[in-house]
Amino acid sequence: MSTVGERERVLTAEDLEVLPERPGVRYELHEGKLVEMPGAGGIHAAIVVRLVLLLHQFVTSRRLGFVFGDGLGYILRRHPDTVRIPDVSVVRRERVPAEGIPEGFWPGAPDLAVEIVSPHDRAEEVHERVRDYLAAGTRLVWVLWPKSRTVTVYWPDGTARELGPDEKLTGGDVLPGFDVTVSELFVAPEETPGT
Fold first, then answer.
1. Model confidence over 138-161: pLDDT tens digits?
2. Structural domains of the chain in order of their starting residue, each with its CATH number
3. What distances in angstroms separate CA 9 from CA 22, 30, 80, one per listed residue?
């Protein structure tokens, strides 16, 4: 459990790595400040699994790099440190350190970062995360909005585009040839009993 002092002082990525875990809660750093991230729900988790499976099949069959599910922290900035944990991420093979996949946080930004918006997320927090990824060198950010079943795609040049359920989401130059219909990423109403 973090103390008030931990929340107020400037922390490093190394401090974050040794912070005791709490069930259902994880932590990130934004400019050295501790950010508590509540646990996600079932729909969120189902979307993570769908996207990881789709991306993993595509990326591994083409030997493009590695796909990571929820849980891997990326050190996006130092002094003060920013560590973000995307819901899904991809790192291209050419950016994997010579010594291999790190044990702890990844040093640097992913090539693709995916955020899945949960009911407790505020729009400004989502946009802050997107800005952090892009400023650190992430080449493509997808934000999935389960309620509206849409995806917003962000590029480093500051442009963004919202895709509706029937449109194709592509991997751009990060994952050339990857595409999926947006609606396929989300849990369909008929898949959830009682809806």
1. 999 999 999 999 999 999 999 999
2. 40-68+84-191 (3.90.1570.10)
3. 20, 12, 11
